[in-house]
Amino acid sequence: MDGEHLHESRRYALILSDEERCKIIRQDIKVDTEHLLTVSNIVHNMLSIVRGSMEAPCLVVSAGSNHGKTTICNAVRGMDESWRHKIRYVTFVKDTGKTKPMVKLLTALGMEPGKAGIPISMVAEYCIANDIRGVFMDEFHDSIKGLSKGEQDTFLSLLRGLCGAPAYLSFFVFGIDEALNALAIDAQYVRRFELYELTPWSKTDAEYLNFLDTWEEIVPLAKRSHLSSKSMSDYIYTNTLGVIGNICTLLRAAACLAVIWGDEKITLESLQAATRSKWNTRVRPKGAVE
């Protein structure tokens, strides 16, 4: 039966048009990888500490580009109903307005920074009054870039102060390897952070093969693609080096071709075409009649 391999919640999409299915395929998919579950567990345990019982523990999640940092950041902060109202989120991606990281952080907390700034004691009081326990900070490596030494010291001083009494805020920092270097500007502060590195999968990693199987259960194709078979998984690995962002980009492109070509499954041919271009859906399989 068509779609028998799909999770029952995804079978509805098989009756949609090719265009609608490709839109679904192009969307990010959350799969409970070991990295995601581990980071979620660490965050949960850190936020479970009674405020004031110890200096707030903090976490740095570090990895190279396209390793799924932002996906994990977004997934973890939305996973647990019990802590969702206690956390805030800020991204330090550079914007056209060149907004200072201090302003971005205070705005994310819900405060109006103002031209004169806000005393750290007032920030702490605000966090306590609103039961804010943690802040997720994405692309942290961009927060320090372009700041003067004085501005760096002021920003890190704020973070360091909020980790201790009376606010006891935990910071969950996501960024490339430079994120740790940014924190290391303050030698005392960086020691408060636990480091977790997102590493690529190996070719024979059971989780890599399980991920391919799970991905296949979610993406609305009528036929099984057998992505975890040796020939398919070897090709995918060789062209992505086990980096999850690269894997998802390749599979999404190949799955769209599977819909457009009418194969209803990912093949080595569609993977090869997707390797050449992730967005060209005008390409046709060998032997196809125009």
Describe this structure in words.
The protein is an alpha/beta fold and 290 residues long. The two termini are 30 Å apart. Helix 13 crosses helix 14. 47% of the residues lie in helices and 9% in strands.
As laid out across the biggest beta sheet, the strand order is 2-3-4-1-5
What is the fourth-level CATH superfamily of the largest domain? P-loop containing nucleotide triphosphate hydrolases
Give the averaged pLDDT, no decimals: 87
CATH architecture of the largest domain: 3-Layer(aba) Sandwich
Topology:
Blueprint: H1 18-26, H2 34-47, E1 58-62, H3 69-77, H4 81-84, E2 87-91, H5 101-109, H6 120-129, E3 134-138, H7 141-144, H8 149-163, E4 170-175, H9 178-183, H10 187-190, E5 193-197, H11 206-218, H12 230-240, H13 244-261, H14 268-276
Parallel strand pairs: 1-4, 1-5, 2-3, 3-4
